[in-house]
């Protein structure tokens, strides 16, 4: 039995393993109160649901926005919305994940209804493979979690094969502190997986993945914050302040050359951190 507000409607954000898990949880407890457009990560905007959110408010419901960037017009009263997110200013090692917050919002019993699988999903969402390792996941569990996450994001076996090839052709910059990988699809997560030693990859300290429409960085926490300030308008998260990820759509004002130059300059004066190979 839930103790969440009886008139809530849930709007789901970018699709990944955590969002898939949240979808299943909501389907079990509030099946008639979920709207899901299966949005891509870079397109997970609250405005995609604007009309439905307005109708929900008109019905006297409380809209619950899950990992949707708030780009709603100013006339939407934020006090009437429940915003659940674990990105941007809401990211961090000690901050509850979206899955944990939805679980609590539904009023579920942590002692009896929380599962080992939920632990793994949260560890993956917060810290990727290193996060799973810290949660004492087995190699088999890591492989399973990462496979399901890639599939939830729409990564195909062909994308994975291309990612492995791109890793082999990567550039090593800033005294080998920055791996730059260029891919022809939009699934940076495949590169992040297969460059890791768990998948027999070479490891890296920091990595920038350049795809046709996006740039995605994974590495030192201090660089995540700096990238967000230098190139606003993107997204970021992870196990901050130690490590995290940042991404942004590319345009005429934010180019790959500018991002690479910025990272190389910052790394020149930054103290080294442990390579992924030692994770």
Describe what you observe in this structure:
The protein is of the alpha/beta class and about 280 residues long. It has two domains: about 10-120; about 155-279, Diaminopimelate Epimerase, Chain A, domain 1. It is about 40% helix and about 15% strand. It contains ten helices and ten strands. A six-stranded mixed sheet has the order 5-6-7-8-10-9, with helices on both faces. Helix 8 links the parallel strand 6 (about 180) and strand 7 (about 205-210). The longest helix has 19 residues, at about 115-135. It is globular. The relative contact order is 0.11. The mean pLDDT is about 95.
Question: What topology emerges from the helices and strands here?
Answer:
Layout lengths: L7 E5 L4 H13 L4 E3 L13 H9 L3 E5 L15 E3 L13 H8 L4 H4 L2 H19 L4 H14 L4 H12 L2 E3 L4 E5 L5 H7 L11 E5 L3 E7 H10 L4 E3 L5 E7 L6 H13 L11
Helix pairs in contact: 1-3, 5-6, 7-8
Short description:
The protein has 279 residues and is of the alpha/beta class. The protein is 39% helix and 16% strand. The strands form 2 sheets. It has a 6-stranded mixed beta sheet, with helices on both faces. It has a 4-stranded parallel beta sheet with strand order 2-1-3-4.
